[in-house]
């Protein structure tokens, strides 16, 4: 499942550079995550890097974009051009 940034975001700028897929960008009021690019860092890291660095714990699983580990891995492979 992709991640989402809640309105508790304080725009601290630490999450955006941590995303290996470039899925995080500045939105109108807070940072946002593009679900088509978010793999929860599957294929890159053991844990979601944005969640690890967020000082206010405002990055959660997006209930509107539920995906299995296999789907996240396939998305990673598509984005990076890698094959498992």
Which structural class is indicated by helix and strand composition?
alpha+beta
What order do the helices and strands follow? EEEHEH
Give the strand tally: 4
Give the terminus-to-terminus CA distance: 19 Å
**Helicity level:** 10-25%
The CATH C-level name is Alpha Beta
* CATH level 3 topology: Alpha-Beta Plaits
Gyration radius, in Å:
12 Å
Count of distinct structural domains: 1
- Largest sheet strand order: 1-4
Strand content: 5-15%
Overall pLDDT score: 95
- What is the second-level CATH architecture? 2-Layer Sandwich
The description of the largest β-sheet is:
2 strands, antiparallel
Low-confidence stretches: none
Give the helix tally: 2
Q: Give the overall shape, derived from the CA principal axes.
A: globular
Provide structural commentary.
25% of the residues are buried. The mean pLDDT is 95. The protein has one domain: 2-Layer Sandwich (Alpha-Beta Plaits). The chain has a two-stranded antiparallel ribbon with strand order 1-4. It has a two-stranded antiparallel ribbon with strand order 2-3. It is α+β, with helices and mostly antiparallel strands and 84 residues long. It has two helices and four strands; from the N terminus they run βββαβα. Strand 2 and strand 3 form a beta hairpin. It holds the Pfam family Fer4. This is YfhL family 4Fe-4S dicluster ferredoxin. Keywords: 4Fe-4S, Iron, Iron-sulfur, Metal-binding.
Give me some keywords for this one.
84 residues, Alpha-Beta Plaits, two-stranded antiparallel sheet, alpha+beta, 4 strands
């Amino acid at each position: 499942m992709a991640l989402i940034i809640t309105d508790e975001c304080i725009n601290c700028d630490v999450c955006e550079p941590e995303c290996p897929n470039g899925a995080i960008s500045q939105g109108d009021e807070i940072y946002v995550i593009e679900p088509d690019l978010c793999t929860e860092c599957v294929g890159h890291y053991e844990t979601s890097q944005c969640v690890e660095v967020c000082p206010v714990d405002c990055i959660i699983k997006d209930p509107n974009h539920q995906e299995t580990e296999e789907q996240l891995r396939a998305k990673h492979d598509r984005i990076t051009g890698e094959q498992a």
